[in-house]
Structure formats: structure tokens, C-alpha cells
């Protein structure tokens, strides 16, 4: 059974199925490359943002935002008070605010 070409053949007279598939593949690669470029830019911005935090603020921020741990769990893990966790997180949020604008 022949494969059906997913476009109007009248519009693309002279294009073979192979040429069409190569074109589609190039478009998909182009999208993947664009997605990867966006991801790289985003990661660079994230690194720049996290670099403005102190090591302690960064640690708490990553545990809360990245790992979704509670302040109580972080306090127990780091052997600090829950208030210290809350303070570090609030300071981190304040420093990172301008990166979101």
C-alpha cells in the first residue's frame, strides 16, 4: 500500500515524497534547534539570577522552588530554624524579583 503524502499534491507538483520528508525533517530539526537555543538562554539567565544569591539563600531557594520541600523539612535538613529558612527564602525572592520583570 502506498503512503499518502499529507499535502495537496496539486500545490506541490514535482516534489517527491522523499523531498517532502526531508523538508519535514529539516523543519523538525529547526524547531529542536530553536527549542535548545531557548533552553540555553533560559539556563544562562537562571544561572545569572542564582549567582546574585548568597550560597545559603541559593540552597534554601533551590530546595523550596526546585525540590518543593517545605520550610519545616528544609529547617530539619539544614539544622536551622524554620524562621531562618523563611528569612533566607524571602531575601532570595526579593533579590530575584528584578529578573522576573
Round the Cα radius of gyration to an integer and report it.
Answer: 25 Å
Could you say which structural class the secondary elements and strand pairing correspond to?
Answer: mainly alpha
- Helices and strands, in order, run as HHHH
Strand content: under 5%
Report on the biggest sheet.
Answer: none
Uncertain regions: pLDDT < 50 for 5+ in a row?
1-12
Shape: elongated
- Alpha plus pi helix count: 4
Supply the number of structural domains. Answer: 2
CA(first)-CA(last) distance: 56 Å
The total beta strand count reads 0
Give a topology summary.
Elements: H1 17-51, H2 55-66, H3 71-78, H4 82-100
Characterize the structure shown.
The chain is mainly α and 101 residues long. The chain folds into two domains: 15-51; 54-101. 73% of the residues lie in helices and 0% in strands. The protein contains four helices and no strands. It has helices spanning 17-51, 55-66, 71-78, 82-100. Helix 2 crosses helix 4 and helix 3 (71-78) packs across helix 4 (82-100). The relative contact order is 0.09. Mean pLDDT is 80; it is low at 1-12.
Task: Give structural attributes.
about 75% helix; 4 helices; disordered N terminus; about 100 residues; 2 domains; mainly alpha; about 0% strand
Concise summary:
Helices cover 73% and strands 0% of the residues.
